[in-house]
User: Which sequence fits this backbone?
C-alpha cells in the first residue's frame, strides 16, 4: 500500500532510517541528538513526500562527530544523493549503486507478499545492501538506519513473521558500540497508533538497544525512545504529529 500523509490527521511521527551512527566524544558517551538531527535532516532533503522509504548510511567516526553541512556534502555528495532521490521517485524503487558507496535506500516493493523498505535493505545475509556498504570498512565507523515510518508491530517487529527485521537488526547493530549506531524513525506507523500503548512499546523493545530514536520533522529535534530513567507510563516517542500510512 502506498504511503500517504494527511495533515488533517494527528498521530505519531517517524522517519524511519533506520541509522547507525557515532556522534559522541567519548568511547561510551551518548549520541548528541543535535548532531543526529543534522544528519537526518540532510537525508530528508532527498527523501520523498507522503511515501514510506528507508535509508542506511555509513560514515567515518570523525564525520559523525562533526556533521557540518560542508562535511556532509563532501562525504555524501549532492550528486549521489540526487541519484538516490531519483531512484526513490519510482514505484518499487531501490538505490544500491555499483560500485557500492556509503548510502543505500529503498521503498517498499509490491509483490504478492509485500516487501517492506527496511527489509529490502537488511535482507541478504553477507550480501545484503547494508552489509555491502559496511564491507571492508574500518570498524571505527557509524551506521545510521533511517526509516520514515516506525517499524511496524505486525511484521517488522514480529519475530514469528519470516520477514521480521529483528533477526537482522540486533546482530548487525551489536557489532558496534552503542555510541556508534542508531535506528531512527520520523513518524509512527498509522496502523500502530490505534494499538494499545503496551503492544507498540513492547514491539519496539525488541530493537531498543539499536538504540531507537525518533527525529521529528519540525523543531522538536531527536529523542531517544528508551532510557533507564524514563517513566514507564508513556514512551516519549509516542508523541503527536502528522500521520503517515504504509
Assistant:
Amino acid at each position: 500500500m502506498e504511503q500517504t500523509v494527511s495533515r488533517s490527521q494527528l498521530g505519531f511521527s517517524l522517519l524511519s532510517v533506520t541509522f547507525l551512527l557515532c556522534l559522541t566524544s567519548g568511547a561510551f558517551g551518548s549520541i548528541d541528538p543535535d548532531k543526529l538531527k543534522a544528519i537526518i535532516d540532510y537525508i530528508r532533503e532527498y527523501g520523498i513526500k507522503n511515501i514510506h522509504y528507508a535509508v542506511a548510511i555509513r560514515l567515518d567516526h570523525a564525520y559523525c562527530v562533526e556533521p557540518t553541512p560542508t562535511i556532509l556534502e563532501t562525504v555524501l555528495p549532492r550528486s549521489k544523493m540526487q541519484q538516490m532521490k531519483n531512484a526513490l521517485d519510482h514505484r518499487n524503487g531501490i538505490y544500491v549503486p555499483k560500485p557500492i558507496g556509503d548510502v543505500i535506500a529503498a521503498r517498499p516493493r509490491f509483490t504478492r507478499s509485500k516487501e517492506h523498505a527496511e527489509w529490502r535493505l537488511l535482507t541478504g545475509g553477507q550480501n545484503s545492501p547494508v552489509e555491502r556498504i559496511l564491507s571492508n570498512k574500518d570498524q571505527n565507523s557509524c551506521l545510521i538506519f533511517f526509516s520514515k515510518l516506525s517499524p511496524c508491530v505486525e511484521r517488522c517487529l514480529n519475530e514469528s513473521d519470516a520477514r521480521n527485521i529483528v533477526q537482522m537488526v540486533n546482530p548487525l547493530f551489536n557489532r558496534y558500540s552503542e555510541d556508534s549506531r542508531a535506528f531512527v524513525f520520523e513518524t509512527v506507523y498509522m496502523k500502530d497508533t490505534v494499538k494499545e500503548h503496551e503492544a507498540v512499546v513492547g514491539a519496539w523493545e525488541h530493537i531498543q538497544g539499536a538504540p531507537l530514536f525518533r527525529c521529528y520533522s519540525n523543531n522538536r529535534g531527536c529523542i531517544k525512545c528508551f532510557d533507564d530513567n524514563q517513566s514507564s507510563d508513556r514512551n516519549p516517542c509516542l508523541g503527536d504529529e502528522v500521520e503517515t500510512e504504509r
Remarks:
- The chain is about 25% helix and 20% strand.
- Residues 150 and 188 are 5 Å apart (CA to CA).
- Strands lie at 4-11, 18-19, 54-60, 94-95, 103-106, 141-149, 181-187, 212-215, 222-224, 241-245.
